[in-house]
Predict the 3D structure of the following.
Amino acid sequence: MSTVDEAIALINANPYGNGTAIFSGSGEAARRFQREVKVGMIGVNTRAKVVTTRWPHTAAGFHFPTSS
């Protein structure tokens, strides 16, 4: 994207967004990005591969949102 505003709007327009990352030399852009995007996981200048896991103690369930 050309601007942080465009990137934030694109991410927030996707109802299935789970995670995203920003690569920037601007602390201001990174702070705005992490405050304003609406996803569960956000990376800022992360390494090429980052794995985040969570192993809940409940039975596995698979629920996929559907569009109407």
The chain has a mean pLDDT of 84. The chain has two helices and two strands.
